[in-house]
Amino acid sequence: YDPKSSSYVDRSKRHSNGAAKALLEVMDRKKSNLCVSVDVAQKQSFLSIIDTVGPYVCLIKTHVDIIEDFDDQLLAELKALSERHDFLIFEDRKFADIGNTVKLQYAKGVHKIANWAHIVNAHPVPGPSIVEGLASVGLPLGRGLLLLAEMSTKDNLATGEYTTRAVQMARQRPDFVIGFIAQRRMETIGSHDTSHGEDFLILTPGVGLDVQGDGMGQQYRTPKNVITDAGCDVIIVGRGIYGNGDDVDAIRKQAQRYQAEGWKAYLDRLSK
Ligand code: S5P
Fold first, then answer.
1. Which residue's CA is minimally distant from atom 4 of ligand 1?
2. Number of Cβ within a 10 Å radius of residue 98
3. Which run of H or E residues covers position 202?
4. What is the C-alpha to C-alpha distance for residues 130 and 117, in angstroms, rounded to an integer?
5. ipTM
6. Which one, of 102, 229, 83, 249, lies nearest residue 176 by Cα?
7. Which residues of the chain have a pLDDT value below 50?
8. What is the pTM of this model?
């Protein structure tokens, strides 16, 4: 079994986790493997970008702790947009602490992330206990977790044995860990026998069509590099979509462009 040559909709049937299933289904329904990362500091701008790109995405990635005028109304509006435009929500919280602390960070505080984010992510650095802590909150709510097995930045430390250990952690909790933030497929890592049908979602940041970096360590690859060549599943695009100002038509055009490029790259991969 090779997830690279299987369709998103067929793969949705292999996942028992509700968030993974729902994501693969919406990707198929909307013909989109585009996740837009909305890293802006004002609520109004945040909601306006999401309303504009909503029709073209399968997933919206948030960093709610960036928003200066955050309030509960923002979450209500985000939820309404996710229903109107049919996308899932991924809070890019990058949990990285002991089980008990991440459990509190996930469920409580100002943001109450578990109440509204279908998907969150975590650094594997604390070991399997971080997954247990998050699962105790997220599983009863049908949520999914991604582990950061690799990063997009220059000279990052998530390589080699660290990546392998991240994959092993995921294999211990397939009910909750639905995949990875990574730059390539992970099923073959750790001299694992892939014949039993393992399937991870690979969500990949560091995607841009016009520039190669941001002067702060970020490194960009194209949708073709990421989806067709590396076999990843979802392209995560931030500033490539809204980085040239807040003109709504320009943002819509970029979202359509990345959606089209990402989908073409997926169809090219399937026809290989
Ligand atoms: O390795 C990573 C992991 C993540 S989640 N590299 C990343 O860039 N990210 C996130 O993806 C980062 O926090 C940001 O929100 C987004 C990339 O944004 P862009 O504007 O560079 O496309």
1. 205
2. 12
3. strand 201-204
4. 18
5. 0.99
6. 102
7. none
8. 0.98
> Is the shortest distance between the CB of 39 and ligand 1 below 6 Å?
yes
pLDDT at 190: 87
Amino acid at 175: D
Per-residue model confidence as pLDDT tens digits over 178-219: 999 999 999 999 866 666 789 999 999 999 999 999 999 999
Best residue for ligand 1 mutational test, from 34, 35, 37, 157 (most atoms within 8 Å of Cβ): 37
How many residues are present in the chain? 272
Nearest to 261 by CA among 230, 226, 231: 226
Q: Are 164 and 189 in contact (CB under 8 A)?
A: yes
| Ligand 1 geometric centre to CA of 205 (Å) | 5
Closest CA to 204 of 187, 169, 179: 179
Residue 14 CA to residue 208 CA, distance in Å, equals 30
Q: 92, 184, 212: which to mutate for ligand 1, most atoms within 8 A of CB?
A: 92
SS3 89: strand
Contacts of 195 (CB under 8 A, 6+ apart): 1
CB 117 within 8 A of CB 146: no
User: Which tokens hold the place of 130?
Assistant: 């971080």
The two structure tokens encoding residue 95 = 């949990």
